[in-house]
Structure to design on (236 residues):
DNA sequence: TTGACATATTCCTATATCAGAATATAATAA
DNA sequence: TTATTATATTCTGATATAGGAATATGTCAA
C-alpha cells in the first residue's frame, strides 16, 4: 500500500505547505480567483488550480463561478477535525511545560545553593 | 518534485492515521514499549517500530531504553505548531456557523409565515 | 467567427511512501 | 555459549504524489 491520497482528508491535504498558504490567504483576503491566488503566492496558475482542486475535494474550500473566473473561498469548518484531534493533546503539552517549569525552578534553586557553597 | 517526506514535520507525520492512533494511545496510557503499541493497535511489530521512528524524527515522541525494551512516550509539544496554525482559523468557522444559524432562523421564520398564509 | 483571457487537465519525471516478509541487531536468561 | 525475547532495518511492489510544460476547456467581447 502506498501513502494515502492527499484528497483523503483534511489531514493529508494540509500536509502540503503550499495548501496551508492558500488557506491562510483565503482566510485573510476572502474570496479570490485562481489567478489572484497564483499571483499572491507566486506559483504558476496550473499549480494553484491543482492545489485548489485538492482543497475542494476535501471540503476545505468552496467555489463559485463569476463570469470566466472561479472564485474560491475557505470553508474553515473542514479544519475542525484537525482542531478537535490536536486539542485533545493540549493538556499534555501544558503538563510537560509544567514539568519543565518545575525542573527549571529546581535547577535554579540548586545553582543558587551551589553558589552559596563556593 | 514529489510529496514531502513524512519526516519533514508534524503535519506530514500526523497525516497517517496509524500514527495519530499511536499518539492517542501514548497520551492515554503513557510510556509504552513497541510491542505494547503493536498489540494495542493490532499491527505487526515492524510497522509499529517504523511509525514510531517517523514520530521520533519529527519530535512527537521520545524514547528511553529499559533493558531490552524501548519505551516511547509522547512529546505533545510537537503538536503545538499544528494547533497554532489551525487555531488561527477558529474565528472563521465560528463565523460561518453563525451565518448558517442566521440563515436557518430566517428560513424557519419564513416557513412559519408561509404556513399562516395557507 | 475570431481573439483574448481565465481556468482546468494531461503528460512527464523524480521521489517517497506503506505494508509485508525476511532478516539483522540488541539485551537478557539459562 | 546458546536460546529467547524485543526491537530495528532492509528489500519489494503498488501507488501517489508535486512541479513543469503543453494543451484543453470555458467565457466573454468585438
Amino acid at each position: 500500500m502506498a501513502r494515502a491520497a492527499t484528497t483523503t482528508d483534511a489531514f493529508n491535504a494540509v500536509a502540503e505547505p503550499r495548501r496551508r498558504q492558500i488557506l491562510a490567504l483565503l482566510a485573510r483576503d476572502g474570496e479570490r480567483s485562481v489567478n489572484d491566488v497564483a499571483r499572491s503566492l507566486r506559483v504558476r496558475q496550473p499549480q494553484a488550480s491543482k492545489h485548489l482542486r485538492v482543497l475542494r475535494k476535501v471540503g476545505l474550500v468552496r467555489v463559485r463561478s463569476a463570469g470566466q473566473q472561479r472564485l474560491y473561498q475557505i470553508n474553515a469548518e473542514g479544519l475542525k477535525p484537525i482542531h478537535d484531534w490536536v486539542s485533545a493533546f493540549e493538556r499534555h503539552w501544558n503538563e510537560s511545560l509544567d514539568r519543565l517549569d518545575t525542573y527549571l525552578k529546581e535547577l535554579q534553586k540548586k545553582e543558587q545553593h551551589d553558589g552559596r557553597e563556593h
